[in-house]
TrEMBL record:
GO terms for molecular function: 3-hydroxyisobutyrate dehydrogenase activity. One of its GO terms (biological process) is organic acid catabolic process. Residues 5-157 form the 6-phosphogluconate dehydrogenase NADP-binding domain. This is 3-hydroxyisobutyrate dehydrogenase. Belongs to the HIBADH-related family. Residues 160-280 form the 3-hydroxyisobutyrate dehydrogenase-like NAD-binding domain. It comes from Acinetobacter calcoaceticus. The keyword NAD applies. Its EC number is 1.1.1.31. The keyword Oxidoreductase applies. It is an enzyme of class 1 (oxidoreductase). Signal peptide: none annotated. It comes from the Bacteria. Keywords: NAD, Oxidoreductase.
Amino acid sequence: MIQSVSFIGLGAMGWHMASHLTKVSGQVHVWNRNFEKAKEHEQIFGTKAVCLQQAVQTDIIFSCLPTSQDVESLFKNCSPKQGSIWIDCTSGVPDIGKRLNQQLKHQGVDYLDAPVSGQTVGAERGTLTVMIGGDQAAFEKARPIIQAFADLIEYVGDSGSAFAVKAVNNTLMATHLWALAEGLSVLKAYGVNLHSAINCINHSSGKSNISENIMAQRVLSRNFDKTFALNLLQKDIGIAIDLITASNLDLPTLNLIQQQFNQIHKTDAQHLDFSAVVKTLEQRNQLELY
């Protein structure tokens, strides 16, 4: 029986995800590298800010960090409770997920890779899509807890599978963004009203989540407020490309997308919303999409 839950990593997504856990558990521990943020979460949501070793002594342990390497580094400083389930919501590397699964299994801990999709608005509303990879019995045990911040929970296969799905999903998102920006560039050059064009596209076969929820709201409005950092999308595309290389597949479009998104150095990309990559296309063609 699940009695206690913890959440490690209170970034843009984790901050909101952790807040929903109080609906399903009366004891929710939180930890963040900037510990003041954990204390703030405690004050706002009624969770309990604890040290890292305390955080990993609960029945269910969530983590949501920038990279798989960040998650791996945690194990140098803590030892999870035997019999617990570690649910890693990081957009991670499949091979590292497999390695962590084996490592924790030897310690009597189940590990699930469980990346999420839905951006910060989905995290705040508790309507995220959660992809699950790993032991299915552990997943079924943890499902009621995950449901606290999820709209769709889908088991996709063995350890590492969910990380792979998330990487491909985000690469497809990047592809949709870039292709739509190119299409609108054609229309802009031809003198078409882009807002009207987007309305037509969204009622036709060319629509996508990008055309419905990103292009007008971020690019055409020139409002590039950061919701999902460009460097994190670059990381996810890189994971997908590594999977392509390892599988020895000839997939030129996705490789080309990586080239376009890597035009902005990761040092600068960490300060930008992913939608701001469109500006590189605008500069190349000396036109602005609005």
